[in-house]
From TrEMBL:
Keywords on record: ATP-binding, Biotin, Ligase, Nucleotide-binding
PROSITE patterns referenced in this protein's UniProt entry, alphabetically: ATP_GRASP, BC, CPSASE_1, CPSASE_2
Biotin carboxylation domain span: 23-480
Record domain ATP-grasp: where: 144-344
Cofactor(s) needed for function: biotin
GO molecular function: ATP binding; ligase activity; metal ion binding
Stored SUPFAM superfamilies: Glutathione synthetase ATP-binding domain-like (SSF56059), PreATP-grasp domain (SSF52440), Rudiment single hybrid motif (SSF51246), Single hybrid motif (SSF51230)
Gene3D superfamilies: 2.40.50.100, ATP-grasp fold, B domain
Residue stretches spanning the membrane: none
Alphabetized Pfam families for the sequence: Biotin_carb_C (PF02785), Biotin_carb_N (PF00289), Biotin_lipoyl (PF00364), CPSase_L_D2 (PF02786)
Cross-referenced PANTHER family: CARBOXYLASE:PYRUVATE/ACETYL-COA/PROPIONYL-COA CARBOXYLASE, PTHR18866:SF127
Protein name: Acetyl-biotin carboxylase subunit
Amino acid sequence: MTNINKPPLFEATIPLSADGGSKISKLLIANRGEIACRIISTCRKLGVQTVAVYTQEDALSQHVADAHESICIGSIEHDTKNPFLNIDLLLKTALEAHADAVHPGYGYLSENADFADRVRATGLTFVGPTGQTISTLGDKRTSKEYLRTHAPEVPLIPGFSGSSQNVEDLQDAATRIGFPVMLKASAGGGGKGMRVVREASQLQSELDRAQSEAQRSFGSSDCILEKFIESSKHVEIQIVGDQHGNVVSLFERDCSVQRRNQKVIEETPCLFLDEQTKKSMSDTAVKIGKLLGYEGAGTVEFVVDTTTKKFYFLEVNTRLQVEHPITEEVVGVDLVSLQLYVAAGGRLADVPELSALTQTGHAIECRLCAEIPNRDFMPSHDTVALWKPANPHRGASSVVRYETAMQSGASISIYFDSMICKIVVWAPTRALAIDILAKELANTACVGIKTNQLFLQSCLLHPGFKDTAYQTSFIPTHLDELLRNPYLPELPRYTSAIPGLLFDALKKASRTQGVRRQPFGGVRRGFHNQKFDPFQQGCEIISTRDSKASESATSCEACLRRPCDGPAGDRWRVQLHTISLDDPVEQDPSLSSPAQHLTSKYTILSQAFRSGDAWKGPSFSIEDITLKPAHKTGNFSSRASIPPSWIKAPMPCKVLSIGKAMGEEVKSGESVMVIESMKMEINIRANVAGRFETKWKVGDAVGEGVVLCSVE
């Protein structure tokens, strides 16, 4: 079985116009980042010119450089409306650039019926369904009502899809259906505007947050309510339709590994379901597509009750999905090329490669995100000092794909989604795909920002994921285990060299400038120019000084800090000559700072000793090292410690809501404010009991580290 080969990727050729030219010759991509890069890649293969749009906040994104032409459309921070949601601006830009088609990507306006209609009304080709189809299927409420009338055989989850947003009506529906229930934004997906409500007392607050998030993400605050199925899988069917009534299924994807109702690991095929069930799901998806003459790529999503293996319709995403590459890997069809083909009027029946589709091998995708798993997956932002995929030089036949707009020196902005990269792996078997993907993650360097890189490896290597019956509750159920380092038993083996490397690097950095350098002074004694030299080791150190240190310290302690909660880090003694200061130290004889405040922090990326087996364990270790003098060397002033009653902003953010009145009594752990950053809402809870105070109001922008509120 393991001699199965990965299917080659077929690209559909865009139909020609009457004058012999391509019907789509210049495409404006009304999106950014990774998906824009993905679309540009296919367009280059097909000979289509591309126009990228960007804002001042993402001017250094890779899609700006990759496109044939790039146009700045404003600023997210300073414009009154997000430029990526400004239909008039995008249409004006497309016309001025002489584009003949618009691709919406995913997110933003990709499921906006008005945008689709207005693009076509200007005489441009919209790469996606008609506005009528989007308004019917892209809206969860409308799609359910439509299917009840026109396809009653499609199984629907019990719920309330009426137009009322009155909390009393929703309360009555939830009581009738039975808790727990799920609130969902009617106009969009991607985990935005979704909340699980387990008891009646939570309904009002969760509805407010779901509506707020839905309004900002999709321009509509409408929500529907459904029964929440506890033991479930999230399985979806990829479909593509043309303008001539043809719809084909490209099989299923299992997207059950989720956090915050957003997918982080997806795979295909779904080995948990039998072939008959998967065929029934595909047939249902095709039937739904044909009902409305679906055009373009779309995804019909289902929830599967794992106890009965019955499936229920969830929604139709009338766009390309983030996880589409895993379908491409096992089917061997470029979905972006199919989107362009059918948008230009091509017939699916004329593509012989679609007549006998099969799935070959197994594909898995991980979403590498800038977030902090052990802080409830709070998004993080900073500059990526080093971005180094495990093997950046891969050909088209490679079993690994990196879909990203990331590069060293790029910043993760608070204005955009936290996803850094999608890592996609194909293999003959599921077990082999898991093994390769875990090693790719371990060998990829993303330094300078906190990510879920280690967490994803924990998920892949967990026994619960090895069992194909895992459910959407996989992460919440195993969270404590998943937050631990999966390589902890091996940690000393590949981190034992860090203190020596650190000392050597700091010693070199302290050399006086102007000293004559030896050409081979950096080559270590005993070096062998061999690929598997057992002593060959590379090291890169990215230094961030975030506190004051003494001007001279003869003894320092190096402490390895593990990237998740767990046992205390190993400690080594490192002798240092001098710690140089970036800033002058303010001395104050009346204040005495303990030695632990005089610290310097470093992020260490060290390559493990090679043993002759390039795939044995993780080859890279990314750890935080904190250096602090072992003895106090002087009296210095330091910032006053922040009392626990003060709550600081974890990152630059906007105040969405304030849940308490000034002076109101609150309990420890009670929610007092909601902020937004990186397209995610964050609940702020009181650390202690007391009276609530804040100087901010709804809509205010608050800087990182600034006190949001206090509870005295």
